[in-house]
Design goal:
By secondary structure, the chain is α/β, with parallel strands linked by helices. Helices cover 49% and strands 13% of the residues. It is built from eleven helices and six strands. Strands 1-6-2-5-4-3 form a six-stranded mixed β-sheet. α2 crosses α3 and α8 packs parallel to α9. The longest helix is centred in the first third of the chain and has 26 residues.
Length: 252
């Protein structure tokens, strides 16, 4: 009978794309507990290793959908001692992600650099950990991309709107600058008209909510869109010095 060595198995596991299973097998083979394990326990352990590896990759793909400007944005990295005035109690409650399960929204308002996008990304990352899908829209970038999308392929902008609307959590970053065109209003309204069972949205804006109607432009659209966003939103205004200037406190 041919003697099979561990290195002989690696090409086979690689071909089958079972890297997590092979990694766990190597760990078990060199551990002291392995000798007392049954065959079933061995199989269970290496299958669990593959499952963990796939879950990790899946989480990585979800996180890649979040704004990569702040890869360190995690709820455990929030600096609760930073010199900012905001409702920290409400922020702590939002970490549970119950707002997603209840189809609620979050609105962060405040001056440039106060940490709105960072906090939005941290909450979105936590949502990823809890199994929700996440999308990210930078509003000024989207407003300049409509013509490009349609030039590349007719209907692409509609496809993107449908894709964003299907996310459990959608970050709408830098909302309220300039004014929406008729095309942009219809595009965002399609996104905000989310399925009833879908999760929530996280808005960041320098502009106070009372000026959002002017940004949307059309009174009919603004009433409808604001009702969808604000009527079930947790509002958090951030007041204080720019966190970008206070380097000793980090990003948040």
């Amino acid at each position: 009978m041919q003697i099979i060595k561990m290195e002989d198995l690696h090409p086979l596991f690689k071909e089958l794309r079972l890297g997590g299973m092979y990694k766990r097998l190597v760990d078990l083979e060199s551990s002291t507990e392995a000798s007392s394990m049954s065959h079933i326990e061995w199989i269970y352990e290496i299958c669990k290793g593959e499952s963990i590896e796939r879950q990790s990759r899946k989480l990585g793909r979800k996180i890649a959908a979040i704004n990569d400007k702040f890869p360190e944005a995690r709820v455990e990295n929030i600096d609760w001692e930073a010199p900012r005035r905001l409702d920290f109690g409400k922020l702590r409650r939002l970490i549970s992600c119950d707002w997603v399960r209840c189809q609620q929204n979050i609105v962060f308002t405040g001056a440039t650099g106060c940490g709105k996008t960072w906090l939005a990304c941290a909450l979105a990352h936590e949502a990823c950990r809890q199994g929700f899908t996440v999308g990210y829209i930078h509003v000024p970038t989207v407003l300049t991309n409509f013509a490009l999308w349609e030039h590349q392929r007719v209907g692409q902008s509609v496809e993107k709107a449908i894709e964003y609307a299907r996310k459990d959590v959608l970050i709408v970053d830098d909302w309220g600058k300039g004014q929406l065109t008729a095309t942009a209003r219809a595009w965002f309204d399609r996104i905000f008209e989310r399925e009833p069972a879908r999760g929530g949205m996280v808005f960041t804006a320098q502009v106070p909510i009372k000026y959002w109607a002017a940004f949307i432009g059309d009174s009919t659209f603004s009433d409808s869109m604001l009702d969808k966003v604000i009527s079930k939103a947790h509002r958090i205004n951030i007041d204080g010095e720019s966190m970008r200037r206070l380097e000793k406190y980090g990003a948040v």
